[in-house]
Amino acid sequence: MGAEHVEGPDDFELLAVRARAALVREIAESGAWDADSRWREAFEHVPRHLFVPYYFAGVTGGYERLWGEYPEPERRRRWLRGVYADQPLATRLRDGELVSSSSQPSLMAQMLVDLDVRDGDRVLEIGAGTGYNAALLAHRLGDERVTTVDLDPEITESARSHLAAAGYRPTVVTGDGARGCAERAPYDRIMATCALRSVPVAWLAQCRPGARILAPLSTGLLMLTVRDAAYAEGRFLHTPAYFVALRGDTEGAAPVQHIGGLPRRVLQDELFRFLLTLTAGAMDPHEAMALWLREGRPARERFGVTVSGGREWAWLDDPEGPYVWALRGA
Fold first, then answer.
1. Start-to-end C-alpha separation, the chain
2. Which residues are catalytic?
3. b vs e for 221-246, b when ≥16 Cβ sit within 10 Å of the residue's Cβ?
4. Which of 12, 206, 237, 328 fits a 20 to 30 Å CA distance from 85?
């Protein structure tokens, strides 16, 4: 009877390479890189497992911690399979609540394509997370052109460590993402990887004219074009997006599960939930439903946001039209 095979470091690295290649093929098949295939190279080269040494998988009654340093090969393989699955990973919990995660890779790929970077662009990322997204940006643009900021020093410390282990050294800043990072400005692109209730006006002053801001708002992705330090405007993309809230935003998203008088089929409609969250605090839920039905269940792309002179409002179809409301938190 032969000796039992013991997994060595070379075996594990080969498994990681194969798992990463499979993830890249899956993202490619989704069409995420059709508009900019250069991002595929970044995903091929940046090893996600170095950024997620452990994560939490949901189980009945809570979370199970999966770790890359298990002595048992099968448990390590299970951790690795999860790292390279096309799914978001919970990476940090506090009092049982999720405070940081690594986003679904295919969504990250789509957002990076939507960001529409050009060689030489300077990018500010709001929400450092594991550092994986900053590594992808640094691979494409170079370390010196990428800045990532997070309020939590534990998150920035671990992100910096992960980035160094993978061979990347963008600027990692501990600070309030809502204030941006003025000392590294100006930026050609700002990308938020945390959910917002409104767009921080401070970001506009740190952008070059014509810069773009891509940020999760409500349950969608908002793309703004910056005209100057006081004005930006843009529409939502078609992509649904669910992110952990920007740190310091204690109000969170509007609860939509139990609103009296609204039909369950409407409340369960993903596009209506987008509108309900977008109009929170500015429009009665029944009024929002009436608008939604009257306008033919409008998709995300028909909605937009304008930031002007210290004011911020969302709109349907036309920023000067009849359906306009102030954003909660603006």
1. 71
2. 100
3. bbbbebbeeeebebbbbebbbebbbb
4. 237
